[in-house]
Amino acid sequence: MNPRLHIVLFCIVGGLVFTLPALGTGHFGLWWLSGVITVASLLPVVHAGPRNRMAQFGAIALALVGVGLVCTVSEGYLFVPEVRKYAVAELVGGTVLYLTVAAVLVGLAKLWHFSESADHEVVHRSMRWTIPMVFLAGFLYLVYYQVFGSITFYFFTQKYYPHAAELAKTMGLWFWVYQWARGSLMTLAVIPIIYSLRLRRWQAAGATGLILWILGGGAGLLVPNIYMATAQRYIHIVEIFTQNFSLGVTAVVLLRTRPARSVVNEQVACRGTTT
């Protein structure tokens, strides 16, 4: 079968798992579209991520649960008081759904022999530098959140969150500590992906940025919900891109280094300059 057809089928079939919530909320088509986009964002992981299937499952599941569930639910818990009573149910149900998604994607990847094409050298920071770089990435996310979040709030979403500024002022320094921790947690959730993607550094940066954007709300907000107006959801999709994509690129730049050029490559380069 054509490899491109495998990719299409992978996204379509994998996206179907995301339609389970539609049994209770409706919007089947949008849930499916959201799932297809989410699965497509994870294609680099099954094509060029861990070769071991259990490691692949762990990397996908950690990203889905850490970024797509914990970090998004906690943000909603903070700014939308109405969702707090459903937080535990969402965490439990979402975890079950995402573990199922990860298992299905790994199964499909095995069926169609994914993860056998890319073989680029991966060079990353030593373990003693990993945690400091995670916290640095989290701090830079705080900067992105402040800059892009402020622009979005004052020009577009202020009318939807009339008490947001008061809430942030009430929390004081803890509001920014929370956002720093949130950025650090998202970085931690994609470290297995960053450290295993057999792609060039800039390709890994783009792929990680897209994963953080799509999993962090870029796909989920395509589906209507009772807490947000349509325009509000689409504004947040753009806002999340500016924050999360930037975080993904930053995390890869901080955590991965350029592979050292081999002696053979250096000799070839020297010969090329002398001819």
H-E order: HHHHHHHHHHHHH
How many helical stretches?
A: 13
Number of domains: 1
- Specify the oligomeric state: single chain
Explain the overall architecture:
Helices cover 75% and strands 0% of the residues. α5 packs antiparallel against α6, α5 crosses α11 and α11 runs antiparallel to α12. The C terminus is likely disordered. By secondary structure, the chain is an all-alpha fold. The chain has one domain.
Task: Furnish the topology, listing elements before pairings.
Elements: H1 3-16, H2 22-25, H3 28-41, H4 43-48, H5 53-79, H6 87-111, H7 127-157, H8 164-171, H9 173-189, H10 191-194, H11 201-218, H12 230-255, H13 263-274
Question: What characteristics describe this protein?
Answer:
mainly alpha; disordered C terminus; globular; 275 residues; single chain
Quick overview:
This protein is 75% helix and 0% strand. The protein contains 13 helices and no strands. It has helices at residues 3-16, 22-25, 28-41, 43-48, 53-79, 87-111, 127-157, 164-171, 173-189, 191-194, 201-218, 230-255, 263-274.
